[in-house]
């Protein structure tokens, strides 16, 4: 069973980032020299996935345009002999096969994933959330696909978080199962009220899901925040078949949050081949003045 497709929901309004996201999708906010969504797409591509399905909504066409070929821009760059830049843009438009599906109503993450059912069909698939950037030696998506190769069942990526932050995440309860950094899921709850779970394993936006999730999603009723929650459908799926949680290697940045976004800019900036050295020197310089 090969995982060939990845669903990336990009329909959200980006209210946490207003006013920056009033007229541009939050996924197009820049981290150093590329939009956040490009990091996710590159992670998926370098993990061997063959097709991406964007779940979009009104006002998100900039994302599709970013990964498309722009004839006018290409001609202008050629005219001006900016061949290296033209080549870079060409590479972005040839990264991977992309399909877009509209989520017609903002009914929640579970509903967004369900919207992809006809494009996915009856095969396991990956889900990557655009807010979660993971810096790691081996792409997070690849780490999950390697585990999937062994277990052949659904996997959710998790990271340990302080107990006083568990209410911000989907939380997984489970038993270590002998494989490194892997847990067999026994229960999951979306944004638990403080004190209602002992687990500190928080879901981070990378999932590999068996296609049975679609039938479950079609009958999942609204949960936390009045939205159709993917976590609620995952809990039902974990009762029907085995499900694993995987504590990935890498640092996760919440690019959908103002402070997380700033942290991501610094983290990716200091690793940038052309800008890193100067940025580090600048950070040291300003740190002394603080
Ligand atoms: C979503 C999921 C949640 C997960 C989180 C990770 O929540 O519903 O289970 O922990 O992403 O980023 P959101 O942050 O979209 O509210």
Q: Notable features of this structure?
A:
alpha/beta; two-stranded antiparallel sheet; 5-stranded mixed beta barrel; 36% helix; globular; 11 helices; Spore Coat Polysaccharide Biosynthesis Protein SpsA, Chain A; binds 1-O-phosphono-alpha-D-glucopyranose; 24% strand; 290 residues
Characterize the overall form.
globular
| Count of extended strands | 13
The helix/strand class is alpha/beta
- Which ions and ligands are bound to the chains? 1-O-phosphono-alpha-D-glucopyranose
Structure description:
The structure is a single chain. The protein has 11 helices and 13 strands. It has a 5-stranded mixed barrel with strand order 8-11-9-10-12. Strand 9 and strand 10 (182-190) form a beta hairpin. Helix 3 packs antiparallel against helix 4 (83-93) and helix 10 crosses helix 11. It starts with a strand and ends with a helix. Helices cover 36% and strands 24% of the residues. The chain has helices at residues 36-46, 61-66, 71-79, 83-93, 109-114, 117-120, 140-151, 213-218, 230-240, 258-270, 276-289, and strands spanning 5-9, 30-31, 34-35, 51-56, 97-102, 125-128, 132-135, 154-160, 170-176, 182-190, 201-209, 243-247, 251-254. By secondary structure, the protein is α/β, with parallel strands linked by helices.
Set out the fold topology.
Elements: E1 5-9, E2 30-31, E3 34-35, H1 36-46, E4 51-56, H2 61-66, H3 71-79, H4 83-93, E5 97-102, H5 109-114, H6 117-120, E6 125-128, E7 132-135, H7 140-151, E8 154-160, E9 170-176, E10 182-190, E11 201-209, H8 213-218, H9 230-240, E12 243-247, E13 251-254, H10 258-270, H11 276-289
Parallel strand pairs: 1-4, 1-6, 4-5, 8-12
Antiparallel strand pairs: 2-3, 6-11, 7-13, 8-11, 9-10, 9-11, 10-12
The structure holds 1-O-phosphono-alpha-D-glucopyranose.
């Amino acid at each position: 069973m090969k995982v060939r497709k990845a669903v990336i929901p990009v329909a959200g309004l980006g209210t946490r980032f207003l006013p920056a996201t009033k007229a541009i999708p939050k996924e197009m906010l820049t981290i150093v020299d590329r939009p956040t969504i490009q990091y996710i797409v590159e992670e998926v591509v370098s993990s061997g996935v063959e097709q991406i399905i964007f779940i979009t909504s009104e006002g998100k066409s900039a994302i599709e345009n970013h990964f498309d070929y722009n004839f006018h821009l290409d001609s202008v760059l050629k005219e001006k002999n900016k061949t290296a830049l033209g080549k870079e843009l060409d590479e972005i438009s040839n990264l991977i096969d992309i399909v877009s599906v509209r989520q017609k109503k903002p009914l929640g993450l579970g509903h967004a994933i369900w919207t992809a059912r006809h494009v996915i069909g009856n095969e396991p698939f990956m889900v990557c959330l655009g807010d979660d950037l993971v810096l790691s030696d081996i792409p997070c998506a690849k780490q999950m696909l390697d585990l999937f190769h062994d277990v052949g069942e659904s996997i959710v990526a998790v990271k340990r978080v302080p107990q006083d932050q568990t209410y911000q995440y989907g939380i997984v309860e489970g038993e270590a199962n002998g494989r490194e950094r892997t847990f067999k899921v026994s229960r999951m709850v979306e944004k638990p009220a403080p004190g209602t779970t002992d687990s500190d394993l928080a879901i981070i936006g990378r999932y590999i899901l068996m296609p049975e999730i679609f039938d479950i999603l079609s009958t999942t009723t609204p949960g936390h925040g009045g939205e159709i929650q993917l976590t609620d459908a995952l809990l039902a799926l974990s009762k029907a078949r085995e499900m694993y949680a995987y504590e990935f290697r890498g640092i996760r940045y919440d690019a959908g949050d103002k402070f997380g976004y700033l942290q991501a800019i610094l983290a990716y900036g200091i690793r940038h081949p052309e800008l890193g050295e100067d940025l580090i020197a600048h950070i040291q310089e300003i740190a002394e003045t603080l």
